[in-house]
């Protein structure tokens, strides 16, 4: 990325929180009850974080029912993460059944806040903040419940609730000695649904239409030429210990056969740990859709509050102003500048970018931000 790019400093790097176990240092606060409290404000919010916080508080209070608490404990010990809606729908305890309608409404609110369609289904999930807490949970230590916190908004603590509804401030930089349930989003499902929204929106603007199947210099029997990711490694996937796996996707951009900028989305569900080399053999660019033998790639991460509809509209608005000048020009900077400002106020979202990937590119390509690399190779996909 050139030094003139104004977003460079804002885009690169946020340190992960430390994972050393320390005793619980939080202090119980007054129970958030009645109107005008922080919890009421959060529950009224249409943001994903606000919905998660309100759901966490409701779930915490519901755990005063010992039968329901045991059901939730069994589910949390049996799997790393469980669907919260399904857990409540299948509850035998009355407190769980009463919670089901509220969670259904919360799931609808999350889908709307993330710009997803009505078919997104249940997105809220529940799991322990750290696997090390399983022993204490199994031994009967009363858990707290929290919304999955943001990792870089400047706060050193996050709020968790007990079964009385009282709030406890917990440190962000370490696990605690008390089990903590986290209410979070099914990131893999959200990314899959979100990329569908981006694809549909950009296609409606003429920015992602498939190339003509005939007369485009590619015979039906010849197959397609692609660039394949043979291996990939990231230095920082921007996820602290309590957030679990990152949810990575890539936007590939260049000029389509019609001369208009186009964006293709690439889901990367395997790419979720830092300092780990993956060998996906995944197709990154389908060159039959591009006019020039050059394309760019921008790797992003879903931060929970990501609004895919807003992202798609913002990208379309900027790229529609760019015209084909008869030669390839990189579109990374235009794409990054199109991203809504609020994307830079929670997680950094931007992970890495690659300029001018060529059809003939082969071997290791380092990212522009210095946060990762991938090895690529030309790969011909023959016609069946």
Structure characterization notes:
By secondary structure, the protein is an alpha+beta fold. It is about 30% helix and about 25% strand. It is built from ten helices and 15 strands. The radius of gyration is 23 Å and the shape is elongated.
Overview features:
384 residues, alpha+beta, five-stranded antiparallel sheet, 15 strands, elongated
SSE layout and pairings?
Blueprint: H1 8-11, H2 38-44, H3 48-62, H4 66-78, E1 82-83, H5 84-89, H6 94-113, E2 124-128, H7 134-138, E3 144-147, E4 157-161, E5 167-171, E6 180-185, H8 187-204, E7 224-234, E8 248-255, E9 261-268, E10 277-278, E11 282-286, E12 294-301, H9 308-319, H10 332-338, E13 350-358, E14 363-366, E15 372-381
Radius of gyration: 23 Å
Helix content range of the residues, please?
A: 25-40%
Structure classification = alpha+beta
Total number of β-strand segments? 15
Query: Per DSSP, what share of the residues sits in E-state strands of 2 or more residues?
Result: 15-25%
Count of separate DSSP helical elements: 10
| Physical arrangement of strands within the biggest beta sheet | 1-2-6-3-4-5
The ordered string of helix (H) and strand (E) elements is HHHHEHHEHEEEEHEEEEEEHHEEE
Any idea what the shape is? Answer: elongated
Q: Could you give the distance between the termini? A: 40 Å
Largest sheet: 6 strands, mixed
Uncertain regions spanning at least 5 consecutive residues: 1-44, 213-220
Summarize model confidence as the mean pLDDT.
80
